Amino acid sequence: MIRIALAALALACVLASPALAQATGSVLVIPWGGMLGEFSKAALEVLAPVLLAALTYAAGRLPWWAAMWFTTQRIDRMLKTGADYAINAVEGATHDKALSVDVGYPVIKVALERIMGSTPAWLLKEAGGAKGITERLFRVFKFDETVTDANTLSKVVTDLPTFSFAQ
Q1: DSSP assignment string, 59-72
Q2: What's the pLDDT tens digit per position in 19-60?
Q3: CA distance 83 to 69
Q4: 160 with 142: CB under 8 angstroms?
Q5: Phi, psi (degrees; rounded to nearest 5) at 105
Q6: Does residue 134 sit in the same domain as residue 74?
Q7: Are residues 147 and 71 in the same domain?
Q8: At what angle are helices 129-140 and 101-118 packed, to 10 degrees?
């Protein structure tokens, strides 16, 4: 602790030397504001990369439950983005009405295509691949009573190998 105090005192002596100060008559004016501003800029230039590296290192060492929570949030956001895109892209699909069996298959297919084309591979793997994402998408959309696992979801899952984007 004493060494730090002595180092700070030495630094203050160097910064406040008469060569940096302006002498006006018998009064010695020390430009503390300018020196402090320059020192803070230099300190920020040194500390910013160090803090960024420390945060990056800490992010890689998150506890399993925190990493899982962040991954789950990313998967949910991925599904919502793909579903919104599909609702806007497929004719007959609207946000405020339940989707019928005629619209269910194309909406899931378009959402899956959008997700597979715009999501990092590690997140696709975490979400269960094309099959896992398809099953999650089926739960995201609001379907009417005509849509079932048998007539929509199983049909999309069966057709997955034929989709070029799901390879």
Answers
A1: HHT--HHHHHHHHH
A2: 555 555 566 677 777 888 888 888 889 899 999 999 989 888
A3: 21
A4: no
A5: -60, -50
A6: yes
A7: yes
A8: 130
Cα end-to-end distance, the chain, whole Å: 62
For 37-52, b/e burial (b = at least 16 CB within 10 A) is eeeeeeeeeeeeeeee
What is the distance between the alpha carbons of residues 145 and 53, in angstroms, rounded to a whole number?
52
Q: Are residue 153 and residue 88 in the same domain, yes or no?
A: yes
The domain in which residue 8 lies consists of: 2-60
Residue 141's identity, in one-letter code, is F
Q: What is the pLDDT of residues 126-137, one digit of tens each?
A: 999 999 999 999
pTM over 0.90: no
**For the chain, what is the domain count?**
2
The domain boundary residue, chosen from 19, 39, 60: 60
Each residue's pLDDT tens digit, 70-92: 999 999 999 999 999 999 988 88
Same domain for 11 and 36? Answer: yes
Distance separating alpha carbons of residues 153 and 165, to the nearest angstrom: 18
Same domain, 56 and 72: no
| Radius of gyration over every alpha carbon of the chain, rounded to an integer in angstroms | 30
